Amino acid sequence: IAEFQNVDANYVQITGVSFGPTWSLTSKIAVQGKATYQSDKFLGNPGIVSGLPARSDTERIYQIGLLWTPVRRTTLDLSLERGERTSNQALFSYDYSTLMATVAYAF
User: Fold this and answer.
1) Among candidates 100, 32, 98, which has minimal Cα distance to 64?
2) In angstroms, how far is the first alpha carbon of the chain from the final one?
3) Which residues of the chain are modeled with pLDDT < 50?
4) Contact by Cβ (8 Å): 66, 79
5) Partners of 99 in the beta sheet?
6) Residue 80: closest CA among 66, 60, 94
7) Which residue of 1, 58, 62, 95 has the lowest C-beta tally within 10 Å?
8) Which residues contact 13 (CB under 8 A, 6 or more apart)?
9) How far apart are CA 6 and CA 55, in angstroms?
10) Within 10 A of 95 (CB to CB), how many other CB atoms are there?
């Protein structure tokens, strides 16, 4: 599954910054946070669609999670993510919220 592909640009310049600290409350429990800002500029007009300004999107994503390691090599992660994308073209802006649960075992 991929995001909608844009026919009026043949490449995207993506720039951004992300900050993701982790705080270990105990040896088995940690809290993670992450904030991301990203700018997408759809460049390289192949000439298929004319008259439109080059598409430009801005994304802001915020995530907080709780990690629990009940036994060695096993991690349970519960996290909440909220994000928004704004665009200079109609129908490309949206907001979302996601609740994720992950179990990982490393062997």
Assistant:
1) 32
2) 28
3) 1
4) yes
5) 80
6) 66
7) 1
8) 40, 41, 43
9) 9
10) 10
